[in-house]
Specification:
5 strands, about 40% helix
Amino acid sequence: MPATTRQTAGPGFNFEDLTSAWLVSKMLLGQRLQGVGTEGAILQSQTSSMGWIIDDLLVSTKDGASHLAISCKSNVQVSRNGFPKDFVDLAWKQWKTGGGSMQNNKDCLGLVTRGRHPAFDPVWADITNWVKSSDEELALSRIRATSKHSSIFDSIKSPHGSAVATDHETLRLAQRLIVVPLDFQLDQSTSEDEAIRGFRRRPGVRKQSPPSLRSAWRRFQAPHLRPQRIL
């Protein structure tokens, strides 16, 4: 019998399982996820066979009209210089080919990382806020006003040193990129605490004690016990 993707992909899959369970807890709480809003209802994994290029995890609305495609990595990945080249390459390929059911005007591409980068996070937060503006020239002028913002922006525009898109094309892709730093498998994980709070909403576990809730949450991380359709 040939080895499965899960069997050959290594320890990162444990972090992916934790991320999957965290996403389910967010959906159970009705919390907003970029790309699907509060309507996320379906979670799928390893979706390359469906045409998705960013294919670790896929959150979809119940009617399949909106998606959040996720690359899940068990390290920090980002830096003060921006995004990792391999993720940017996949993002551009996804964006330009429309693999899967990608809709550039509404779906999002996510990078889930383990841990935060203190130099990246506030600068990327500025950029994501600025690119929401309908005035692209204003957004670009703000980004180009400082070297630290330009550096992260250019890691998307020119992942290998040469530009693969214009500033305006890069801005439109940046509008659909999200970075989600989680701290699973690190000491005093706030991500686990957040997930357990959401898990408390599940029928049958609401009145359990905190130790019982934590135990139930850990059992819930097993992929074969976790539902694909959440709501």
